[in-house]
Specification:
CATH topology: Nucleoside Triphosphate Pyrophosphohydrolase
Number of strands: 7
Largest sheet: 4 strands, mixed
Shape: globular
Number of helices: 3
Length: about 150
């Protein structure tokens, strides 16, 4: 097991063709809602991290759906309260954005260690509910990409 988390993570925006977004409420911060997120392990690729984190946090097998590397990333300062998880002097994380398209909202199984509950929300409500600016930005970027490529009618 790795002593510290790598300052490289994935954010997986899970959504449906009718633009419902899956959000998870953090167990360590009730009221903080987010998409699937987690650190990359040393021995895995970014897509493998996205698949693993999706399974760990929702019980969904991302291999059964359309997982897309949006080729977007955010670098942000790690909240002070979470820095103990990283090596000394690590202050920033680079987050790589993925999307996962499901045909419709489905029940998920949250990891009680990480999340209290889940909700499927319409796009505007999801953007307002996430606590992280990078998560809101990821949803907006996904929506813009879908419009450009006419993937959603």
């Amino acid at each position: 097991m790795e002593k510290y988390k790598a300052p490289i993570s994935v954010l997986v925006v899970i959504y449906t063709s009718n633009l419902q977004f899956l959000l998870l409420e953090r167990a360590d911060h009730p009221g903080y809602w987010q998409s699937v997120t987690g650190s990359k392990h040393q021995d895995e690729t970014l897509p493998q991290a996205a698949v693993r984190e999706t399974a760990e946090e929702t019980g969904l097998n991302a291999d059964n759906f359309l997982l897309t590397d949006l080729r977007l990333q955010n670098t942000y300062e790690i909240f002070q309260e979470w820095r103990w998880r990283y090596a000394p002097n690590v202050t920033h994380n680079t987050e790589h954005i993925f999307s996962l398209l499901l045909p419709k909202p489905v029940p998920v199984v949250v990891s009680p260690r990480e999340h209290l509950r889940y909700a499927w929300l319409p796009k505007e409500e999801a953007i307002k509910k996430v606590f992280s600016y990078s998560n809101a930005k990821a949803i907006r970027n996904l929506l813009s990409s879908l419009k450009v490529h006419n993937k959603i009618i």
